[in-house]
Amino acid sequence: MAVLLTGGTGFIGSHTAVELVQQGRQVVLLDNYSNSQPEVAERIGRIVGRQVPAVEADLLDEAALERVFSDFDIDSVIHFAGFKAVGESVEKPLAYYHNNLTGTVNLLRAMSVHGVKKLVFSSSATVYRADNPVPYREDSPLGAVNPYGWTKVMIEQILRDQAAADPAWAVLLLRYFNPIGAHPSGLIGEDPSGLPNNLVPYVARVAAGLLPKVQVFGADYDTPDGSGVRDYIHVVDLARGHRLALDRLERPDRLGGVEAFNLGTGRGSSVFEVIAAYERACGQKIPCQTVGRRPGDLPVVYADPALARAELGFEARLTLDEMCQDSWRWQRNLSSE
Ligand code: WQD
Fold it and tell me: Ligand 1 centre and the CA of 232: distance in Å?
């Protein structure tokens, strides 16, 4: 019996694959490599000490999906695959709705045909309405501010409707805050194509001398040092959260249905604090320049992590310094390739 990881060679998927294999599970990676490389599967294999099956397939290709479920004995799915660049989603909404929503519906139909009814969904804190008070709780009202975020809200609704239509379905929605860092081996990590949209991969490339300086998007927010505050969580902690989610889905006493959990630390860190932590990790000053606010950014976002702690037994352990140290090790390896 295997767990299928769609988007399994991506940033979160690859780290979750390591966690699950090291727990003793069989894992199958499915990816179209639109935002990752096939060699990630080989690197996962080097970390866990054995090959992990990886299939190149696109969720928009129903025949390929059918082959995956026929070729492998899959009994649960973690669904990571999807476009995830906020800015790009504003420029290309139809591409995002087609890829993320149609791909998900195809996946759920293939699962239904094969009697696979356990799913963990890679959701996001962007599903929460921007005017919610922080910390965000799982019962905070939902509402996105960009097409990417709306695809996450809509997929959560699709899953609720599927579980209502067939109560045998058991679904967990994991709402990530800001995943950063890398596996301590330095073999897998975040490597966005093109210019990074997110703070830490951008800082990493500045530290590596690949980019000249970090632009700080606003230092006039109502925060301790004026820069934006976010809930950064180590990707290795996040991977453990997925393992605990799968364990919960497989509990014989679990009643099916849909549950949502925040995966965050419950602590906020500012842009300047992240840059300072990265300077400690890489041992050098990181040039930065304060510019205007980025449209759509919120001043402060962080999680209420209590429900995941109470129900999943999940609590983030790794510190911001460890996140930056692991990120820097990975960036150094990337730069030396
Ligand atoms: C963090 C902070 C910026 C870049 C996004 C997505 C969200 C999720 C995580 C997928 C903010 C500041 C950033 C830079 C900066 N992804 N910043 N200079 O926007 O909190 O969340 O990634 O689910 O959906 O929205 O992350 O890393 O872009 O920004 O000053 O070059 O860093 O203003 O305060 P964000 P981020």
Answer: 10
The C-alpha atoms of residue 262 and residue 268 are separated, in whole angstroms, by 14
User: Per-residue DSSP letters for 226-293?
Assistant: SS-EE-EEEHHHHHHHHHHHHHHHT-TT---EEEEEEES-S--EEHHHHHHHHHHHHTS---EEEEPP
**Which segment of 53-62, 94-103, 219-228, 327-336 scores lowest on mean pLDDT?**
327-336
How long a stretch of residues is the chain? 337
Q: Go through the domains of the chain in sequence order and give each one's CATH number.
A: 2-180+232-263 (3.40.50.720), 199-230+266-336 (3.90.25.10)
Q: Give yes or no for a contact between 72 and 53, defined as CB atoms under 8 angstroms apart.
A: yes
Q: Which of 194, 281, 284, 267 is nearest to 232 (CA)?
A: 267
* Complete DSSP assignment for 44-103: HHHHHTS---EEE--TT-HHHHHHHHHHS-EEEEEE--S---HHHHHH-HHHHIIIIIIH
| Predicted pLDDT at 80 | 98
Going from the Cα of 84 to the center of ligand 1, the distance in angstroms, rounded, reads 12
pLDDT of residue 172: 98
148 catalytic, yes or no? yes
Q: Give the pLDDT band of residue 253 (cuts 50, 70, 90).
A: confident
Q: Is the pLDDT of residue 337 over 90?
A: no
pLDDT-derived band at 210 (thresholds 50, 70, 90) equals very high
Measured by CA distance, the residue closest to atom 11 of ligand 1 is 228
- pLDDT, tens digit (0-9, with 9 covering 90-100), for 13-47: 999 999 999 999 999 999 999 999 999 999 999 99
Ligand 1 pocket at CB < 6 A:
84, 86, 124, 126, 176, 178, 197-199, 202, 215-217, 228, 230, 271, 294, 297
SS3 30: strand
